Amino acid sequence: MTKAKPKASTSTSCAIGDPRFKALDMAMKRYQHNPDALIEVLHKAQESFGYLEADVLTHVARGLQLPLSRVYGVATFYHLFTLKPSGVHTCVVCLGTACHVKGSSKLVAALEAELGIQMGETTVDGQVSLLAARCLGACGIAPAMVIDGAVSGKQTPKDAVDKVRVLKF
Predict the structure, then answer these.
(1) Domain total in the chain
(2) 135 annotated binding-site participant
(3) pTM value?
């Protein structure tokens, strides 16, 4: 017996008339509401909305017939997804085992002090978001960080601070 797939998701009242939700519905339809397309659908959602707010996650969960906990788990596992509006620039520090052993906690401390924010926050001016990743897959160049998509390895706290200072001005 085959499980019936929904034709369209009507999960939230904010979806009515919002072209971003319509684009998201089209993406889910393109993937035939297949739960295995969760990551692709989340990418489309973040592209459309800028970040993955609660209503969007609920909409995706209902549209793909998945538990909200699974959608949330995937959205919080991958560093490319964010649940909060991001700054103009993003600085992602790897906290994986190799990076941790090589001093990523010192990078985090230096960056938090320089930016005046904690990990997971965005500066008051909206310029820089400081984020953590469980692993960037750059273990050979630990400690690693990614600024606006560019990976930098073998970072010292001074290197990291110098890189974000450039972003602030």
Answers:
(1) 2
(2) yes
(3) 0.64
